[in-house]
Amino acid sequence: MKICYIFSNFHHAHITGQAGVMNKLILKASENNQVFVISNTHQAEQITRDGVSYYLYDMSSSILKFIVSTIHIGRILRKIRPDIIHVNGALMSVYISFINILVGCTQVILLSETIENIPLILKWMAILSFRSHPAIFVTSNYLKMELISAGIPERKIHLIRIGLGQKFIDVQQKTEATDILYFGDSNINRGFDFIVHLAEALQKKKFTILLRYTFAEADILLKRVSLLPNVSVKIYPYKEPLEQLLMVSKLIILPFRWMLIRPPISILEAMALRKCVITSLMKGNEEIIDQGKTGFMVDFKNKERVISLINKLLDNPSERKVIGTEASKKIQKMYSKNEYEKIFHTYHLLLNTQ
Length: 354
What we know:
By secondary structure, the protein is of the alpha/beta class. It has 12 helices and 14 strands. It folds into 2 domains: 179 residues, 3-Layer(aba) Sandwich (Rossmann fold); 169 residues, Rossmann fold, CATH 3.40.50.2000. The two termini are 15 Å apart.
């Protein structure tokens, strides 16, 4: 089978959610299929890596480059004539749908991010695109219900659990050298302010803060927390692999207010590593967190209760171990390799019913 995967930000596949999810799917698909990839990056090039043909475009610098790249993408699709075009994301689905009018290939969609904050006109266009294609893969029940409420027929929606890297499973236990670890970005949506306030309130506890990106909105908070003697702040790229840094923490705290990907991949990674996770009440988290059994969901505005829970867990290593073990079992069961086979099986069904 010839499959063409199309997604944005190829150059971020090693550190960001959507691109990372697609990269894992591409690697799995390439084991038994002829795979092509179309994406944007900093420099236009065509490369072949591990049997996969990549067509990469620089579409950021001008409208002219965008138009030229769009024409070229149409030509590439007509040339390779894939059996399946698999597009990631709501807006990318709209974009490729227009190009695919002239190509006429079967197009399916992967949606790992909520569409709730998309501007109304673009959301309307995305929903029209969803309705016109035979299959939409979603990574959570939260996203499935979001599409159903938007009028997408349930029969078109396929729930698949993908996005967890194997490196977060095959890791040996390490000596826990830090009490509390936060990893992500320094923005308010991720709850960075909550972690700063906790570090200030718990100055006898050792904090590690791993930041992939820093944002101007939290510059003052970042400067403040960096001055605390109990806090170590590390900015990407880290000197050690992320999974190794996570393994040496007693607790992982992820106080999300709002995230595009539901549930966030960072929670999956921490749970897979047998870590005890405290996260927020954000919708979607409940699909993987069984309260008190595989982790904790709390209201971070109630700082006293959060601090009480942190102290309780830090004082009870056996409880943390039990919770971490149950968390890893649940994640490995939900995010098994069989989830990828569901996608490939759907491809075959679609092609056989044409």
